[in-house]
Specification:
- The protein has 320 residues and is an alpha/beta fold.
- It is built from 11 helices and 12 strands.
- The strands form 2 sheets. It has an 8-stranded parallel β-barrel with strand order 1-4-5-8-9-10-11-12, surrounded by 8 helices. A two-stranded antiparallel ribbon has the order 6-7.
- Helix 3 links the parallel strand 4 and strand 5.
- The radius of gyration is 20 Å and the shape is globular.
- The structure holds ligand PBG and zinc ion (ZN).
- The site of ligand PBG has 11 residues, from helix 6.
């Protein structure tokens, strides 16, 4: 007779739940929102079904719902009213992001607010920094990112999340925040951000596609894994509080490696393209939406993620 029978512990749901190694919780999730100028705007984003462009008033209403569902945090992205060469609307206190952060903080103070710090939505050329010819000038860009981070902290952000992939931005942003006494504003670094085709729906949603070339001179080559650890080491040394890896699903090997190496929280960004593929297949009836989302997000946690930034957050919170 067989002595070892792994199936014994799979006989019913209660047994399975006792030996389950990973549990998805609503507390793991961050919901990204897109804010625009104007009032009473709620327009669905074509490439991201069930995600909306929201004016500040509607963003506040949604934030209340998110908090009521038990989701601990939102990440705020904005579409500005004007763009220029250096992306100056990114640090304008009257831009949609700054206004939404302030209004959400006032209406739902316990909700953690993450501000995405970048320039691509705000520059006419769509690159994530200041151009010098066709080159994104690293050190000049750092000065602008400092302004963006400080403006978001002034608006009330609890966490700033730089997604630009310039070298040295974590220490530059930490210095700028500390100089303004924002010592308790955390930095969640998009430390390992690959140059990825999975960002396409987001670039439509945020109107942030580069007008020439691509982002390969600053975002990482998806063929590389050791380089991810290098980026993580640098960001930890510069003072990142949370390390993010992006995208999620095709990069779970990286998540697992980073998790083994570090003692700070690991986040993953389950990006727009990953979301859109699942939604599209579900809308066609080709997959079971709830099953696939649960499986995908559980896999992210199993790989080692503590935090999952995901457009599925509201759906998941409603199921759990
Ligand atoms: C901006 C930014 C991007 C995303 C988050 N911040 C796009 C990009 O780098 O082009 C992608 C998010 C998503 O695809 O859901 N730097
Ligand atoms: Zn950018």
């Amino acid at each position: 007779m067989l002595k070892l029978r792994p199936r014994r512990l799979r006989l019913n749901e209660n047994l399975r739940s006792m030996v389950r190694e990973t549990n998805l919780s609503v507390k793991d999730l961050i919901y990204p929102i897109f804010v625009v100028a104007g009032e009473n705007i709620r327009e669905e984003i074509p490439s991201m079904p069930d995600c909306y462009h929201l004016s500040v008033d509607n963003a506040v209403e949604l934030a209340k719902k998110i908090a009521a569902l038990g989701i601990p945090a939102v990440e705020v992205f904005g579409l500005p009213e004007y763009k220029d060469e250096i992306g100056s609307s990114a640090w304008n206190m009257n831009s949609p992001v700054q206004k939404a952060v302030a209004a959400i903080k006032k209406a739902v103070p316990e909700l953690v607010i993450v501000g995405d710090v970048c320039l691509c939505q705000y520059t006419t050329h769509g690159h994530c920094g200041k151009l010098c010819g066709n080159y994104v000038d690293n050190d000049e860009t750092l000065k602008l990112l400092q302004k963006v981070a400080v403006s978001q902290a002034e608006a009330g952000a609890d966490i700033v999340a730089p997604s630009d992939m310039m070298d040295g931005r974590i220490s530059a942003i930490r210095d700028a925040l500390d100089a303004k006494n924002f010592v308790n504003v955390s930095i969640m670094s998009y430390a390992v951000k690959y140059s990825s085709g999975y960002y396409a729906p987001f670039r439509d949603a945020a109107d942030s596609a580069p007008q020439f070339g691509d982002r390969k001179q600053y975002q990482m080559d998806f063929a590389n894994s050791r380089e991810a650890l290098k980026e993580v080491e640098l960001d930890l040394a510069e003072g990142a509080d949370i390390i993010m890896i992006k995208p999620a699903l095709a990069y779970l090997d990286i998540v697992s490696k980073v998790r083994e190496k570090i003692n700070r929280p690991v986040a993953v960004y389950n990006v727009s393209g990953e979301y859109a593929m699942v939604k599209a297949a579900a809308l066609n009836g080709w997959i079971d939406y709830k099953k696939i989302v649960t499986e995908n997000l559980t896999a992210m946690k199993r790989a080692g993620a503590d935090i999952i930034i995901t457009y599925h957050a509201i759906d998941v919170a409603e199921w759990l």
